[in-house]
Amino acid sequence: MSQCLEMTFRSMISSISDGIYITDSEGYCIAHNEAFLRITGIPANVVSGNVETLLDNHLISDSVTLEVIRSGQRVSKVISYPSGCEALVTGNPSFDEEGNLVNVVCEVRDLSELNTLKDELKRAKQLNKQYREIIRNYNPVNDAAQKISARDLKMQSILDELPRIGDSEATVLIHGESGVGKGLIASLLHEHSNRRIKGKFIKVDCSAIPSSLIESELFGYEGGAFTGARREGKAGLLDQANHGTAFMDEIGELSPFLQVKLLSVLQDHKILRVGGTTPLPMDIRFVCATNRDLEKMVDEGTFRKDLYYRLNVIPIAIPPLRERKDDIFGLTLTFLEKFCKKYRRSLSFAPAAMDSLYEYSWPGNVRELENVVERLVVLTQTSLIGKLDLPEKIWQATHVMVPSEPSHFNERKVIPLKEAVAATERHSIEGAFLQNKHLGPTAKALGVDISTLLRKCKKLGIRRTTTIEIP
Question: Is residue 358 helix, strand or coil?
Fold first, then answer.
């Protein structure tokens, strides 16, 4: 072979992304490309010898080349290499004009990516089976449970009590952080009462209405009561709630003046419109909600004690989502079904993504979870929602954090060193994939070769929706 032709030949096999390994008729290597070294992890100085040397030194689990030499036919096998990769090796014999074997050309195709995808598919199928099993065995305790996914014992207890509370006329005060579902509980109380037939459920957001307008919005006004008022006057929100339920959300935001007027309504069952002189009889059931500590406000003098006791006849305390982790799975499925139907999509969660949702603290509670699921349904490009598809603050917050200062050690949970190292490696690799997308740049950013990166991904179970990019 001329020098020019040899250079062309070597340039050609170097451009191939699969590994190429060529021997003569006796098994001595005469050519290989860089991809072969990268995939197999075999040192270059060892590759140049006879293939039997690789077999004797346990650098390959089997030899396609030797079998092709013995049989004179095309052979394909899956071979394990020192890099930790499994590869599909196909050996093709090359003959001269007289039929004598001249060379054996082996193509080595890395199966790591395929194996990872197969593992992910297997896990996704297992998770799907788990979803179906939970849904099949899930028996709602009542109508409320059909609207609120509740596996947590505290929430189930609240839902069990809703029909009895709803059927009464007692005032209810719902406590809970923003986003836990206080409004939904209030609406379910109305649905469990006879008032759903004769009246409406009217929500009054005490924090959203400007203080200068809330009195007229709440109680209504007579014609000409103030500049800009309608000539015929206007009924207030409490008028609309007559014979029904008034849901006073964020009741702690009411001014002292309006607290007095609301107390009068509770005591006398009458309202007086702005500019009016004649009280109007009202039949209203009040359900109130707050994320503030009203008892503390009473002690501080910012909330009337008599009004507090009028409102707090039946208290309902809704725990935050971080304290009822068992509800996260059901809520996620409920929201996923809702938004897949809305946006006409079909998606599911990978196990690692579901784990991250479960571990996250959810400061925004159920409302934040619902918003996250809707965003994922809209933006996820594949049918499987992976961990790295989640908002960065969620998957970053769920990594195991290793103490950075020895002085804080006693304040933190001690993590076994092996788990801490694995968590740190996982965090670094997933972060690098997020920034670099492809295997080549990711491995370069981490300071390792691609075979090492693939081996660690397989070991740590890291899902990669990337394609191999040859540097």
Answer: helix
